[in-house]
Structure formats: C-alpha cells, structure tokens
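Dear U.,

Please find below the material for section 3 of the report. The protein was modelled together with zinc ion; I have listed the sequence and SMILES used, followed by the predicted complex structure.
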Amino acid sequence: MGRWFKQLEFRWSARPAVAAVFPAPEVEVPTHDGGLTAWCNETAKALGLPELSRRVRVSWNSRMRTTAGRAWWPDRLIELNVKLRDLAPEELWRTLKHELAHLVAYERAGRKRIDPHGAEWRAACAELGIPNEQPYHTLPFKGRRLKRNYAYVCPNCFETIRRVKPIRRAVACYACCRKFNGGVFHARFELIEQKVKV
Ligand SMILES: [Zn+2]
Ligand SMILES: [Zn+2]
C-alpha cells in the first residue's frame, strides 16, 4: 500500500525527483520473448495494473526497419525490432521500458485521450527507471556505414535527423517551422541531440 501511494505521488509530480522506483533486474532477466513478457507481467503487477499484467505480451518483429519498438493498446502488445539483439543490451532494455511506459500510461488513462509522449508517459518512464527518455524510436540500424553518429529529434513531430558531424548552433525542424511559423526559426522546434550508440 505504501508503495502504491509513493507511485501515485510520483505519477503526478511534474518533475520526478526520485530516480528509479523500478530498478530493472537487467542481468537476471533472459531476453527471449518469454523472459521479457514475464518481466513486463511482474512490472505491471507491481505498478498496480492487474489487467495489463495479465495481458501484456512482448514479441520480436523481423520486418521492422529503423523503428526500435512499438506498443499496441488496447492489444497490450509490445513489438521489438530483432536487430536490437545485435546492439548493446541497454538499448533493448531502454526500448522495452519506453514501450511498456506507453502501455502503463494508456492503461491508467483508460478512455481518456492522452498525448503519446505526454506527461503520463514521462511519469511512467520515470517509474520504470528511464526518467530522461526522449520520444525517440529510431535506432541507427540503417546508415551505419555512413557513420552518421549524431542524431537529432524534433520535439514537435519527432522526426529524426542524422548527421555525420555534430550541429554546433541552434537548429530547428524545417518542416515544423514551415508548417507552424511561416518558415521562420522558432525555439519550440529546436532539435534535441540524441545519444545513440552506433
Ligand atoms: Zn514512444
Ligand atoms: Zn518537426
């Protein structure tokens, strides 16, 4: 009971000060489908979401190209790109938590409409131990040979821009500036640098 209250508090605080309520057992969990599903079952249960716990499933998708993961609600299905197996395990866990956070947010919201990467999702990310997660789904699967090691994402449309060299000045999303600001730079669409492992 005490823990649930703590999480409610957590859920509604705009800036979660506490680190991981949920330190994932990174090492112990086997990363085959069953192991990941079991981890999601337990995590949802501990967050007080019995239906999500019962129904959540994780599966590997071999047809995904650059998308790392996807969450389906109300199906409560998480699909992970098989290429995640070739990357550092942190990438897999980060993606899994990112997607589970979507399901947690939707589960709590019920019929209420919420922003996919809004406050509810960010709160769920914090509870799952990824407090600074960005709404960023693309991993450097493609273009690896070009060594475009720098990735930037638009905070508005989430379009990702990859560069060989880092951008040293304030750059905003061209599409969004054009659509919403008459083609003039606006800080609201300033690109955010992504930390990616290539
Ligand atoms: Zn997302
Ligand atoms: Zn944009």
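For the text of the report, you could mention the following: The helical segments are 2-12, 33-46, 50-55, 89-109, 119-127, 174-180.

Regards,
Y.
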